[in-house]
Amino acid sequence: MEKDQVQAGMRVAIVGAGMAGASCARMLSEAGCQVTVFDKSRGVGGRMTTRRVDWTDAAGVTRQASFDHGAPCFEVSDPDFAAFLAVPHAQGQIAPWPPASGAVGLAAAAVQASDVPGSVAHRQWLATPDMPALCRSLLAGLTVHTRQTVQSLQRKAGGWCVTLAEGGSFSGFDAVLLAIPPQQAAALLEPQQPDWAQQAAALTMLPDWTLMAISGAAGTSTATAVAEAARAVPVALPDSGPLAMIVCNDSKPGRTSLAGLTHWVAHASTAWSQAHLEESAEQVQQQLLRALDDWLGASVRWQYATVHRWRYATLQTACVTEADATARHYWDRATRLGVCGDAWGGGGVQGAWLSARALCTALLADQ
Ligand SMILES: Cc1cc2nc3c(=O)[nH]c(=O)nc-3n(C[C@H](O)[C@H](O)[C@H](O)COP(=O)(O)OP(=O)(O)OC[C@H]3O[C@@H](n4cnc5c(N)ncnc54)[C@H](O)[C@@H]3O)c2cc1C
């Protein structure tokens, strides 16, 4: 995207600072646009996220822990996405994970060097030192307003106006891009583009109950056995029971680990998450800890545990029509309103990037 392709200083509001929004912001700012990004969360990254918690151990000492409780990693199969990742890879912002020998139940083809052209040949990657790092680097130096929920959009004589749930508004934008999950996008699109809103609402996102837990401390035979299991198997994909993926967070590159403690992130299967979606966090935590105990073959003395319910974690790819999959975005050149995100790009982090690129290409082609 050449700088002279774009109207000098075109002002673009981007709603969402996940992979799609951050990618739009970087691409458009490199093309000469003035971008302003809004995100309702405390930080950027969206579902590429890492939760930090303070917890108190048995001796009453306050400790800190972090868990990648959203996307554990992401798949790379598109040559252009692989080529884009070459720079973050060279700068140490992403790393291959899991290591080829460290996954149990993953098809070997999914974790070994593949036929993806370009320098990023490994199939699965994560951001380092935490999951939001890739989006943080894409957004570096740009105007980003976090903890700001966009409640409505109005098109006025002077351009688009973005109204915030927290109070106040920003106006004078030449274009607005929504880079948010379809259910949230549908609400903002309804008054502007009811057809798009209807299509977005029809895209199904699958839920994911996620357990974060700390085992330890070393010294007992159970704790030692559990720590050894974690070292031997950084990722497991059980094929039965409530859990679909068990990750030893400490096995990930760049993560801080605490001596004698093992940090786990365990994702319930889609079917289990759907069946238990409205249960209380306490009930779900109990059941998922028991499932993790069963998988470890030990009754672990858990030091800390919590759960997170993702109502809209990943795209149900079966709901995407062929037309959606090829278009990857919505763009209305008359009003300069656009939509992108994983749900339009085929799902996942790669889908979010592909969708963002398609939308930016459409916007810049209209200049
Ligand atoms: C548990 C889990 C496991 C996953 N596993 C994988 C995997 O293995 N591989 C893979 O590729 N992907 C995986 N994903 C999916 C991947 O994380 C997403 O596809 C990708 O990160 C989506 O990026 P996005 O920018 O489209 O949306 P998001 O990351 O959801 O970003 C949207 C942003 O918009 C903000 N927002 C929403 N509404 C508003 C509003 N009204 N105003 C302001 N801000 C708003 C949100 O706070 C969010 O930060 C997983 C996700 C989860 C949750």
Molecular structure report:
This protein is α/β, with parallel strands linked by helices and 367 residues long. It folds into 3 domains: 3-46 and 133-203 and 323-365, FAD/NAD(P)-binding domain; 75-127, no CATH class; 206-314, Polyamine Oxidase, Chain A, domain 2 (Alpha-Beta Complex), CATH 3.90.660.10. The protein contains 12 helices and 20 strands. It has helices spanning 19-30, 79-90, 108-111, 133-139, 182-189, 194-201, 221-232, 270-275, 281-296, 322-327, 342-345, 348-365; strands at residues 11-15, 34-38, 51-56, 62-67, 74-75, 94-96, 103-104, 124-127, 143-145, 150-156, 159-164, 169-173, 175-178, 205-215, 235-236, 243-248, 262-268, 302-315, 330-332, 337-339. The strands form 5 sheets. The protein has a 6-stranded mixed beta sheet, covered by helices on one side. Strands 7-15-16-17-14-18 form a 6-stranded mixed beta sheet. A 3-stranded antiparallel beta sheet has the order 5-8-6. α1 runs parallel beside α4, α1 (19-30) runs parallel beside α12 and α5 (182-189) packs antiparallel against α6 (194-201). The longest helix has 18 residues, at 348-365. The protein is elongated and about 70 Å long. The chain starts with 10 loop residues before the first strand and ends with a helix. It binds flavin-adenine dinucleotide (FAD). Flavin-adenine dinucleotide is lined by residues 15-21, 38-41, 46-48, 70-75, 149-150, 179-181, 184, 208, 210, 267, 310, 313-314, 341-342, 348-350, 352.
